[in-house]
Design brief:
19% helix
């Protein structure tokens, strides 16, 4: 699984890791918003890494949590689904709209392998200062470059370069953004 190799989805060890993540996300999702210390502690226990001043509004859903790394100053609105069968790396100052899905799992096209519950996964990487609009879906193996904007409802099926606006299904670049002067 971690190396991108096929794995059996109903493996008992993976099931146990998934149950751990479900317990932690349930605790996170039901902890009062004002209990910042407990919420931060639960995120630190659940995720592989979480930067300072990062906020994730509940509900949050993950497969394992441990393969998610989020940089500093990032924000995810209500309803983030981050299926981290492979690594999900989110940079600094990333803004994620409500009901965004980051989906690393892939499934075989062969019906026999699919029925046998074989799966694989590819990582997702989101650069610094990216804005992902509400309802967007980012699929396995995608890298989104720094300073890029992904429109609401977009389905990102392939890499996006830095400093662009991408919209649609499948997402396509419609504009290059001006680079700010340093």
């Amino acid at each position: 699984m971690l190396a991108g190799e096929p794995y059996l989805a109903d493996d008992p060890e993976l099931r146990e890791l998934s149950l751990r993540a479900m317990d932690l996300t349930e605790a996170y999702n039901t902890t009062p918003m004002r209990d910042i210390t407990r919420r931060r502690g639960l995120l630190a226990e659940l995720l592989g890494a979480v930067g300072e001043d990062t906020e994730i509004r509940p509900p949050l859903r993950v497969d394992y949590g441990t393969q998610i790394r989020i940089g500093s100053g990032s924000f995810a609105n209500f309803g983030l689904v981050a299926l981290d069968v492979a690594a999900i790396t989110i940079g600094d100052d990333v803004q994620i709209g409500s009901n965004v899905q980051l989906l690393t799992p892939t499934h075989p096209l062969d019906p026999v392998r699919r029925r046998a519950k074989w799966e694989a996964a590819q990582p997702i990487t989101i650069g610094d200062n990216v804005w992902i609009g509400s309802g967007a879906i980012v699929l396995a193996g995608v890298t989104i470059g720094a300073d890029t904007v992904v429109g609401a409802g977009a389905v990102v099926t392939r890499d996006l370069p830095a400093g662009v606006v991408a919209v649609g299904n499948p997402a396509r670049v419609i504009r290059t953004l001006d680079r700010p002067e340093a």
